[in-house]
C-alpha cells in the first residue's frame, strides 16, 4: 500500500504541513491509487516478476494499456520498437521501468474532465509534452545524469499534478492563475496569496501517497526551487524538468520567464554549457516530433 495522506503530510516541515492540512480541510482531494497499481506493487514487493502475470494485470485496464503503447513509441525507446504486446514492453523496457510508466499514466487517468474539458485537455497536453521531453533529455544525458527515461517521465507527469488538484477544488483557480494564456503558468507567490496553497507541496503529497521514489518526491516539491537541493539525484531531476519545460516553450515559440533565473543552475547540473544548448535543444525537439507520429 502507499503511504497514507496523513503520513505523507508528516514528512513536510511545519509551515508546509499546516498549509497542506488546511487545504485538505478545505476539500482538496488527494487521488487514491488505481487498483491496477496496487496489484502490480504487490507482485513487485514479492519479487514476482512473472511477465505474463504482470501483463495480465496491466491489460485489465484498457485505458492505461492504450496510453502505455503511446508512451513507448517515444524516441527514447526507439531501439525496442515496434511493440505488439504488453509482455514485449515488460521484456524490453524492464519491469520496474514499465511500472514507473504505468504509475505516471494512472495519474493522467484521474481528473474530472466533465467540469472544464478544454482546460483539462490543455493541462494534460502540456504535462505529457513536458514528460516526453524530460524522457528524451534523460535518454540523451544518461551517462552524465544517471536518471532513466522512465523516471524522468514519471517526474514529468507528476511535477505539476498539484495544479490539477487545485483546479478541481477552486473554480476561480484557472482564471486567477492565467492558465489558459500562452506562456503563462502558476506564479508561486500569487498562488500563495490568493489560495494559501502551493502546488509543489500538493504534488509532493500525491507523490508520497502513491509511493514514488523519494528523490522524485523531492524533485516535485522543489521543481521551482533548484537551489534548495544539494548535489543528488533530485537536483538532477529538477534540472531535467526545468530544461524540458524550457524546450516545451521554445517549441511553442513562447518566452519562458523562469529560464533566465534557473539556467545557471540547470546547465552545469546536466553537464552542459550555454554554447552547446541550442544544438541540444534542436536534437530533442527533432526526436520529440519524430515520436509524435
Automatic annotation (TrEMBL):
The keyword Zinc does not apply. Keywords: Kinase, Transferase. GO terms for molecular function: kinase activity. It comes from Dechloromonas denitrificans. Residues 30-226 form the HDOD domain. This is Histidine kinase. SUPFAM superfamilies: HD-domain/PDEase-like. It comes from the Bacteria.
Amino acid at each position: 500500500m502507499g503511504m497514507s495522506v496523513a503520513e505523507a503530510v508528516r514528512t513536510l516541515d511545519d509551515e508546509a504541513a499546516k498549509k497542506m492540512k488546511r487545504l485538505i480541510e478545505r476539500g482538496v482531494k488527494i487521488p487514491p491509487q488505481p487498483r491496477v497499481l496496487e496489484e502490480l506493487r504487490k507482485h513487485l514487493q514479492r519479487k514476482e516478476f512473472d511477465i505474463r502475470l504482470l501483463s495480465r494485470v496491466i491489460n485489465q485496464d484498457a485505458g492505461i494499456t492504450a496510453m502505455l503503447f503511446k508512451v513507448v513509441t517515444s524516441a527514447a525507446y526507439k531501439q525496442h520498437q515496434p511493440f505488439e504486446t504488453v509482455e514485449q514492453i515488460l521484456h524490453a523496457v524492464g519491469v520496474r521501468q514499465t511500472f514507473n510508466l504505468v504509475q505516471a499514466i494512472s495519474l493522467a487517468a484521474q481528473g474530472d474532465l466533465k467540469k472544464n474539458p478544454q482546460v483539462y485537455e490543455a493541462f494534460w497536453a502540456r504535462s505529457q509534452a513536458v514528460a516526453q521531453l524530460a524522457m528524451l533529455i534523460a535518454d540523451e544525458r544518461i551517462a552524465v545524469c544517471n536518471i532513466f527515461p522512465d523516471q524522468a517521465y514519471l517526474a514529468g507527469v507528476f511535477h505539476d499534478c498539484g495544479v490539477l488538484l487545485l483546479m478541481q477544488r477552486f473554480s476561480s483557480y484557472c482564471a486567477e492563475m492565467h492558465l489558459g494564456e500562452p506562456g503563462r503558468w502558476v506564479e508561486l507567490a500569487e498562488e500563495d496569496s490568493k489560495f494559501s496553497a502551493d502546488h509543489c507541496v500538493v504534488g509532493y503529497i500525491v507523490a508520497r501517497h502513491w509511493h514514488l521514489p523519494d528523490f522524485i518526491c523531492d524533485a516535485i516539491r522543489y521543481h521551482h526551487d533548484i537551489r534548495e537541493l544539494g548535489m543528488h539525484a533530485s537536483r538532477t531531476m529538477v534540472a531535467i524538468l526545468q530544461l524540458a519545460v524550457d524546450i516545451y516553450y521554445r517549441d511553442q515559440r513562447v518566452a519562458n520567464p523562469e529560464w533566465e533565473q534557473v539556467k545557471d543552475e540547470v546547465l552545469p547540473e546536466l553537464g552542459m554549457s550555454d554554447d552547446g544548448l541550442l544544438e541540444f535543444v534542436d536534437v530533442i525537439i527533432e526526436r520529440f516530433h519524430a515520436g509524435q507520429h
